[in-house]
Amino acid sequence: MGWEQRLGARAFIWIGAVTLALAAIFLVRYSIEEGWLSPEVRVILAALFGFALIGGAEKMRTRDDRVAQALAAAGVAALYGALFAAVALYGMVSKPMAGVAAGALTAFAIGVSLRHGIFVAALAFVGGFLSPAIIGSET
Hints:
mainly alpha
């Protein structure tokens, strides 16, 4: 398979995954502006969306690995977004507990990457290293 076929086969899948992630972000932003959802509900829905994407990745794994990898990566990104929103935007979680949650999420993302590939592992790596900077520390 040449690079043109690989690019054509993968590019639209990744564009779709990025579009899903952006749709979730803009939906949450719009709900914030309109006051439709409380902060707690927003975070819970974002986390559920992330888990649903990972569940969809598991279901798609037997059909198309590329689609499954894109869904899993979008799901992991949504979970990190939900955690960071709960901590940095809404202050729902204490910083020590957020550190534990970030570590658990990174371990979960690494587990997902064992089934769905290196891109998900890269997201886990980046999320794990950025977590302390975003969460901050108690002073």
